[in-house]
Structures are given as structure tokens and as C-alpha cells.
Amino acid sequence: MAKSMKSFSPILSYAVFTFSVSIVLLCSVSIIFPALIQSTYSEFSEFPFYTPLSDPFELGGLAIPFVILNGIILLIGIIYYKKHYSLSRLFNFDVSNKIAIIIIVIILSIYIAATVGEFAVEEPWADFAKIQKMVDHSGPINTLTYDQYITDTLLTVSQNSFGNIRIIPFIASIALLVTTFFVAKEITQKRVPGILAMVLVLQSNIFLTYDTSATYSNFWILFYVLSLYLILRKWQLSHVSFVLSIFSKSLSAIFLPMTMFFVLNNTKGRRRIYLTISYGIFIIIGVFAIDNFNIIIGEATYLPENFAKGIESFSYQLRFDPIILISLLPLTVMLFLKSLKGFSQANSILILISGFLLIPPLLITFTIQTNEPYRLIPLVVFFAIGVSTLLGKIKQDEL
């Protein structure tokens, strides 16, 4: 059972909310005015002859629904908070463990049946040929970076054992759904919010786009989400899962600050001391590794104009996920209101959501890497967990 701190710190809640809502609002600008950021931060915008190719204040396709639905949802949320209502009263029921298992099996069975046809279609990604050569060992093996060995091993097992390189990545996606259920259940102490979190991830277009991909597999995301769950349940094993995440994709290394906040915000006593020291050691190792920066996330550079491009790409990359685009801002406010009632887990989720919004722009600003949509899948997962958190009362148990 998840155990959280009883202590209540409105200062921390306000600080987390200020940080999170600033990022969410910045990303939301491109939902209402898709061309505004691009026209403002164009590399030619300072020239007197510069003329924007499009009206920077032209409304986007989701602008009106975004404004209307956000206004309605935020108004309802404020009324509930001011009147001291609790959303959990609307969802004060739960299902038994047996029924939950049956529901999950049904959901996953439908998902698997609807997805198996994808294995007959070759992946469209340009990097797939390189991945296939890596697994077939028809290319130079010594060119593998340290964060490819676990992925290479799992993909090789998939190819040799199942005759298809995409089977184990698909199993990893299923495992990610199950892990999402357990994280939400652990936080809310109810099974219904966990099932809802699974469904919200499953309805995401960006998740369904990459769920069977060997090129952009979900191994790293699975291991990272699992490491957070293990912090709550079996903290001694969380480090193993986190290291597996890094060795599946080096990008996971920069998740350490979010993990550290999660540790400090959701543990106490000896568990907090041990986890803080151990993850602190990881941070120290990471700082030393920065001396050879390409070992972690690629060749270092500094392209400040890319930060605006990364923020702007949020609405474009999630254009087929309108639920997330429209609901992210009210979710941020609702989690803040929930944190003011002493639910410290709400602060953890806000940091995770805002962190995964901020990482892609920072990545393309300080490295030569490109901004790929699959990096937003963790955002989808924690958005789903955040929504589920609103539907259940979090028990403030002693550690």
C-alpha cells in the first residue's frame, strides 16, 4: 500500500504549481495561436524586412474548444474547492480485486486483438533498417552505444524466439499499461482509478503509434515508471529498474531530478535517507559523465532558438490527442487544489508532467538531437495517472 507524508506544505504546493502552470500555459499558447511562437522567435524576426508567412494570431483548430472547455472545467473545479466538495464523493465506489482483473483482461484482450494486425506491416520509420541490422548483427556491433545493449538484447530475443522483432516491444507496451494501473492504484488506493488510467493511455494516439515499434520501443519508459512504483512498494529494487531505463535509453538519466523530488515527496524516515543517498550518488556520477557529454545524450551544442520550436511542437505532436491538449491546464489546476488539501502525491505528478513537457525543448536546445514525438509518451502516462488521482481519495498513511 502506498504511503505518503501527512505533512502539509502550502509553500511547496504554490511553488510546484507556479513552475508547472507556467510551462503548461507556455505550451498551451500554440494550441490557441499555432503561429505565434514561431513568428515571435523566428531567426529573421529582428530584420526590418521580415514578414510572417501566416497571421500569428490566427486561431488554431482546437482554440475555441480549448477556451470553452477549460473555462467550464476550471469553474467547476473552483466551485468544488471553495465549497469544500470532494470529487471522491462521486467515485466513492470500487471494485473487488477479482472484478478488476477480469476488466483488465478484457481491456487488454481487446487491445491485443486490435493490434496484432500491425505485425504484418513493416515499420515506417527511417531508422528501422539500422535497428534491424543491429539485431541481425549484419552491421558493426562495436558501434553500439552503452544505452543500446539492453534494447539490442530484448529485440534479438524477440526476433529469435518469436520470429518478429516487434513482439517484445509490444509486450513492453502491455506491461507499461499494467504498471500504469498499479501506480494509479497505489496512489489512490482504489482499483477503478487504475483502470481509468489504463484506458486513458490506451486512447492516446501517440501511444498507439509507437506501441509495437522496435525503432522507438517503450522499454525505457516502462523501466522508469516501474522504478517510481518500486519506490512506493519495494524501494530496494527501484534503483535496478532506473538503471535498466538508462541502459535502454540514455535520455532517462536526465529524469533524476524528477525522481529525487518523487523520493523526497513520497517517503520519509530511513527509506527517504537511503533513497536520497543512492539517487544522489547517481546524480554525482551523472555530473562527472557530463565531462564527456556525448556519453549521456549526444553531442553538446547550444541553439537557443530551438527552445521555442520545442515548446511550439507540443500542440502539433499531440494534435491527434485532443483530450490531453484540452485537459492538461485544468488538470494542473485541479492537482494544485488537491495538493492544498494535503495530498502530496499531486505535487509529484505535477512535477512529472511539467518535467516531461520541458525536457524535449531543452534537449534540442542543448544537444544536436531532434525532437521526436515518442518522447511524449511519458507525458501521456502521467497525465492519465494525474486524472485518475482526482477520482480517488488519497489515504495519508504513516510510513
Q: What does this protein look like?
A:
With about 400 residues, this protein is an all-alpha fold. Helices cover about 65% and strands about 0% of the residues. The longest helix has 23 residues, at about 10-30. Helix 3 (about 65-80) runs parallel beside helix 15, helix 5 (about 130-135) crosses helix 6 and helix 8 (about 190-200) runs antiparallel to helix 17. It has one domain (about 10-40, about 55-390).
Q: Gist?
A:
This protein is mainly alpha-helical. The chain has helices spanning 10-32, 36-40, 63-82, 97-115, 128-136, 149-162, 167-188, 191-202, 205-210, 219-233, 238-248, 256-266, 269-289, 305-317, 322-340, 344-366, 377-390.
**How many structural domains?**
1
> Mean pLDDT score, rounded?
82
Structural class: mainly alpha
**What count of helical segments does DSSP give?**
17
Q: Summarize the helix and strand pattern as letters.
A: HHHHHHHHHHHHHHHHH
**Largest sheet descriptor:** none
- The percentage helix is 55-70%
* Ends distance: 10 Å
Shape: globular
Radius of gyration: 21 Å
Poorly predicted residue ranges:
1-7, 43-52, 394-399
Strand segment count: 0
% residues in beta strands: under 5%
